[in-house]
Amino acid sequence: MVDLAYLHREWPSCLLSLISCHPRPEVADQVKSLGGEYLAVDTAHEAGSDGYAKVTSADCDRAAAELYHEQARDVDIIITTALIPGRRAPRLVTAADVAAMKPGSVIADMAAAQGGNVEGTIPGRSVVTDTV
Length: 132
Fold this sequence. Notes:
Blueprint: H1 4-10, E1 19-22, H2 27-33, E2 37-40, H3 58-72, E3 77-80, H4 95-100, E4 106-109
Parallel strand pairs: 1-2, 3-4
Protein backbone atom coordinates (compact mmCIF):
# COMPACT_ATOMS: atom_id res chain seq x y z
CA MET A 1 0.00 0.00 0.00
CA VAL A 2 1.06 3.58 -0.57
CA ASP A 3 1.92 5.42 2.65
CA LEU A 4 1.16 9.10 2.02
CA ALA A 5 3.08 10.22 5.10
CA TYR A 6 6.16 8.35 3.85
CA LEU A 7 5.86 9.83 0.35
CA HIS A 8 5.49 13.35 1.66
CA ARG A 9 8.38 12.94 4.15
CA GLU A 10 10.84 11.21 1.81
CA TRP A 11 10.25 12.90 -1.55
CA PRO A 12 11.53 16.46 -1.99
CA SER A 13 8.70 18.97 -1.95
CA CYS A 14 9.64 20.03 -5.47
CA LEU A 15 8.70 16.52 -6.63
CA LEU A 16 5.57 15.91 -4.59
CA SER A 17 2.78 18.23 -3.65
CA LEU A 18 0.07 16.55 -1.62
CA ILE A 19 -3.37 17.73 -2.67
CA SER A 20 -6.56 15.98 -1.65
CA CYS A 21 -9.99 16.36 -3.24
CA HIS A 22 -12.52 14.66 -1.01
CA PRO A 23 -16.23 15.11 -0.30
CA ARG A 24 -15.81 14.39 3.43
CA PRO A 25 -14.64 17.51 5.28
CA GLU A 26 -13.21 15.47 8.18
CA VAL A 27 -10.46 14.36 5.78
CA ALA A 28 -9.18 17.96 5.62
CA ASP A 29 -7.36 17.70 8.97
CA GLN A 30 -5.64 14.48 7.88
CA VAL A 31 -4.40 16.06 4.65
CA LYS A 32 -3.29 19.27 6.37
CA SER A 33 -1.41 17.26 9.04
CA LEU A 34 0.81 15.96 6.21
CA GLY A 35 1.43 19.46 4.93
CA GLY A 36 -1.00 19.01 2.08
CA GLU A 37 -3.65 21.19 0.54
CA TYR A 38 -7.27 20.12 0.91
CA LEU A 39 -9.65 20.99 -1.92
CA ALA A 40 -13.24 20.76 -0.75
CA VAL A 41 -16.03 19.49 -2.96
CA ASP A 42 -18.52 22.33 -2.61
CA THR A 43 -21.74 20.46 -1.77
CA ALA A 44 -23.48 19.09 1.31
CA HIS A 45 -22.36 15.64 2.42
CA GLU A 46 -23.11 13.34 5.30
CA ALA A 47 -21.09 10.45 6.67
CA GLY A 48 -22.61 7.13 7.59
CA SER A 49 -23.09 6.20 11.23
CA ASP A 50 -20.15 3.77 10.91
CA GLY A 51 -17.74 6.56 9.89
CA TYR A 52 -17.61 5.52 6.25
CA ALA A 53 -18.86 7.67 3.42
CA LYS A 54 -22.41 7.24 2.19
CA VAL A 55 -23.44 7.31 -1.44
CA THR A 56 -23.16 10.92 -2.56
CA SER A 57 -25.80 13.00 -4.31
CA ALA A 58 -25.77 13.68 -8.06
CA ASP A 59 -24.83 17.32 -7.30
CA CYS A 60 -21.88 16.20 -5.20
CA ASP A 61 -20.79 13.71 -7.86
CA ARG A 62 -20.92 16.44 -10.54
CA ALA A 63 -18.94 18.93 -8.44
CA ALA A 64 -16.37 16.29 -7.54
CA ALA A 65 -15.99 15.18 -11.17
CA GLU A 66 -15.28 18.77 -12.23
CA LEU A 67 -12.69 19.20 -9.49
CA TYR A 68 -11.05 15.83 -10.24
CA HIS A 69 -10.83 16.66 -13.95
CA GLU A 70 -9.23 20.06 -13.23
CA GLN A 71 -6.70 18.47 -10.88
CA ALA A 72 -5.86 15.56 -13.21
CA ARG A 73 -4.22 17.98 -15.63
CA ASP A 74 -1.94 19.40 -12.91
CA VAL A 75 -0.88 16.48 -10.71
CA ASP A 76 1.71 13.76 -11.25
CA ILE A 77 0.18 11.14 -8.95
CA ILE A 78 -3.43 10.24 -8.21
CA ILE A 79 -4.17 7.81 -5.38
CA THR A 80 -7.79 6.72 -5.03
CA THR A 81 -9.18 4.87 -2.01
CA ALA A 82 -12.95 5.46 -2.11
CA LEU A 83 -15.09 2.55 -0.99
CA ILE A 84 -18.63 2.28 0.30
CA PRO A 85 -19.17 -0.94 2.28
CA GLY A 86 -21.23 -3.53 0.44
CA ARG A 87 -21.12 -1.68 -2.90
CA ARG A 88 -18.94 -1.49 -5.98
CA ALA A 89 -16.24 1.18 -5.71
CA PRO A 90 -17.49 4.54 -6.99
CA ARG A 91 -16.04 5.70 -10.31
CA LEU A 92 -14.14 8.94 -9.63
CA VAL A 93 -11.60 9.28 -12.42
CA THR A 94 -12.77 8.95 -16.02
CA ALA A 95 -10.80 7.93 -19.10
CA ALA A 96 -10.86 11.62 -20.11
CA ASP A 97 -9.26 12.54 -16.77
CA VAL A 98 -6.53 9.92 -17.32
CA ALA A 99 -5.93 11.16 -20.87
CA ALA A 100 -5.60 14.75 -19.56
CA MET A 101 -2.73 13.81 -17.23
CA LYS A 102 0.87 14.64 -18.04
CA PRO A 103 2.99 11.90 -19.65
CA GLY A 104 4.66 9.75 -17.01
CA SER A 105 1.97 10.38 -14.40
CA VAL A 106 0.98 7.54 -12.07
CA ILE A 107 -2.37 6.41 -10.67
CA ALA A 108 -2.65 4.02 -7.73
CA ASP A 109 -6.24 2.75 -7.56
CA MET A 110 -6.44 1.22 -4.10
CA ALA A 111 -10.09 0.28 -4.72
CA ALA A 112 -9.25 -1.92 -7.72
CA ALA A 113 -10.40 -5.16 -6.08
CA GLN A 114 -13.92 -3.72 -5.68
CA GLY A 115 -14.15 -2.48 -9.28
CA GLY A 116 -11.85 0.51 -9.04
CA ASN A 117 -12.27 4.27 -8.75
CA VAL A 118 -10.52 4.81 -12.08
CA GLU A 119 -11.98 3.96 -15.47
CA GLY A 120 -9.78 1.33 -17.10
CA THR A 121 -8.55 -0.23 -13.84
CA ILE A 122 -7.99 -3.98 -14.07
CA PRO A 123 -7.62 -5.62 -10.64
CA GLY A 124 -4.19 -7.15 -10.08
CA ARG A 125 -2.65 -5.64 -13.23
CA SER A 126 -0.68 -2.57 -14.19
CA VAL A 127 -2.34 -0.67 -16.98
CA VAL A 128 -0.34 1.66 -19.23
CA THR A 129 -2.00 4.31 -21.39
CA ASP A 130 -0.55 6.91 -23.73
CA THR A 131 0.06 9.26 -20.81
CA VAL A 132 -0.18 7.26 -17.59
